[in-house]
Automatic annotation (TrEMBL), chain B:
Sequence intervals crossing the membrane: 38-59, 201-223, 262-283, 295-315, 322-341, 379-399
Pfam families associated with the record: ABC2_membrane_3
Protein name: ABC transporter
Organism name: Shewanella glacialipiscicola
Domain ABC-2 type transporter transmembrane: 39-399
Membrane topology: Multi-pass membrane protein
Protein's cellular compartments: Cell membrane
Lineage: Bacteria, Pseudomonadati, Pseudomonadota, Gammaproteobacteria, Alteromonadales
Highest taxon of source: Bacteria
InterPro entries reported for this sequence: ABC-2_transporter_component, ABC2_TM
Amino acid sequence: MWQLIMTELKAIISDKAIAVTLFGGVLFYSVLYPLPYLHQVPTEQQLIVVDLDHSSLSRQLIRHADASAKIQVIGQVGSIAEAKRYIQTRKAHGLLVIPEGFRRDLLLGKGVTLSYGGDASYFLIYSAVAEGLVSAGMDAGKQVQLIGMLAQGQNPKQAQQSLNSIHLNSVPAFNPSLGYTPYVVPGLFLLILHQTLLIGTGILGAGQWRQRGYWQQVSPVQLIGGRILAFMLIYMFFTSFYVGYCYHWYNVSIQASLGLVALWLLPFLLATAAAGIAMSSLFTRRDLPTQVLLLISMPILFVSGFVWPLALIPEPLVLGSQFIPAVPAIMGMLELNQMGASWASVMPKWLQLWGLFAVFFGLAILGVKRRVRLLKAQVG
Amino acid sequence: MTERTPDANTVDNSKQSPSRISFIALVRRELRALWHDPWQLALVSYIPLLGIFCLWWLFSAGLPRQLPVAIVDQDHSQLSRMLTRQLKANPVTEPQNFTDLTAAVTAMKQAKVYAIVVFPYDMKKDLLTGHKPTIDVRYNSQFLLVGKLLSSQIQLSLGEGLLHVAGLKQLASGTPKSQVAVNLSPVKSQTTALFNRNNNYIGFLVPPVLVALWQLLSMLVMANSLNRELHLNPMNIDSDTYHDVSNVLTVAFWPKVLAKMVLFTPILMLQGGFILVWLYLYLGLPVAGSLASLLLAQSVMLLAVWSLVLLVFVVMRDSARVISFCTALFAPAFAFMGITFPTHEMPQLAQWWRLIMPSSHYIESHVSVVSYGAALPSVVSQLCSYWGFLCLLPVIYFLSRKLLPITVNATSAVTAYDSDATQPAKGQ
């Protein structure tokens, strides 16, 4: 058995296409994929102001907006049409319109309406602009209210209190900075491991089936066992690098203990390796597995439920995707490691991964047996 | 465009000089190759359809609705029930009652609910007696999209409800009714989502996702077609190959490439056009400009993708490696488009890498046409951003002159039967 594993390892490393995919791909993607998100949170979005009031209060409002971390006021223009042109040429991403008579109406005790606009072609920008402006506007409103109340002769402390009768304490859980890498990296990196492992086993198998070789001389069960163990040996290091070092480097929040994470990833890697071998028996062209897996990687990413909530994905797609080891693995990992769920609550998914391992192992045996038969028939 | 044979070509070349090969024959040769390759056929027929449909279906809900929110009501007052009803009235939130906090926390950790709202004990009493109770809201920001949405919607709903309470308080203290609303919120705000008015996720996410898919497909189709040239046996011309077309890689390389482009451009433009028709005509997503100018942008993007594939091909000249390298290059294209995460917030390195991806150039034109209604001239001026790809062409030409003969010589030295590096490409 040990010899078989060594032969497998040699076959993997001496095959340039596999070596490049496994070693190059895993390293390259660990840098490239999170690269756009390194700044985590969009701040200082450019805002253009249409000030039709030109009063002290409107200027104060603009200063408040500029002071918000999410917004940077880049200038003032005379009309909304002009502001729109700024947005269309991407010089600005949002606009604030202060209506004429803003200060006067407020002092007279009439209500006024501020208009905010954000470019919703880009949701993250839009939400940043809206958040920044709403808080600046509320602030200005409070200020005016306070002045009004004080003018009516209320004592300052009580005035403060009646403005905020109930305090809303809204706090993000699990990803406290609302950063983008802690959101994307945990799921994405498991998917990268999944896809490269499938590609590696796929290319290795597809390259061998047509030629005689050591793979015929051992029984299918032995071959599959040896191959899985060989890949597991390599992926132990990759997974440790991803889940250990990269998670830490990209500020992913970590809740579970090392032992639990290892226990969780064991059936995931086993099931994926078995699935890869089962799949590889379908191919004899070495360039095909990469292509197939490339095309399905985006759908797997979106169906796994951390980008787009599972509750909104059509039921047939969710059910169908349960056969892909990455789908339960990503969700369970997020629950276990990022959101701190107990082991008991992720147990069903863990058992599901073991079930997938059993199914794919069976399919792999059938597939390899078929390949042995085909080659014999071919050779004669 | 008919080039003379590169002089380094030493393979016995008893066939006619390529200038006599009619271009039509080359195109027919490509068509035949396509017809005999089931995988290529799949790539141009049902795979794009299936991919487009599945990805659209995934996001077909469009607007996040009825996301489960746990309510832990420790107050059991008329006020807390009123606030729960407020949350129920919001289409985004679907309140679910939990009797104790630990159960709610467990549900949140299992992603069964996406947020928790806790109404504290004696909330109403505190409010009436002039204290300042705190309503705790925790939202799941591990799922950033859902978390941010819920945070703002819950605050909106509760804020609205609380305003109501404060209004009653004001009336009780004798403020005239007409004045109450103004007193409560003297500055009203009206937030407008420009260009994608109802914050529809189909309009936001599906076009870039499909463009990324389309880019992968065009890359694969061209890479496969080029790779096929590597596996043809240069010695004997298959009896069924078209008359006089030599299978030697260097013979008429550029006309062959041109023939591939002539064949695949209409096919892939059909796919690209289908995406536009499906999204903007059939599903009726709002589009401000004209789709014709987008077709122009798509065709330029296609050429840019192919110039990259060609570059990788002449450098690598091995089918599995060409595919692996192109995959590595194009797979993360979606992240770099700058739709989900804004471009100007990316680090400099990412912005440079982004320029290599044709899809990020295209998506700029796409957004400006669909959202801002850009006219043809401004689209054309945006197309100038592809200038870098134009610079690639001489490089590719130079490399092809230098490197392709090496491969040809190598494969002609090793005879038809060869090492594991080049597997037979035909069928499976």
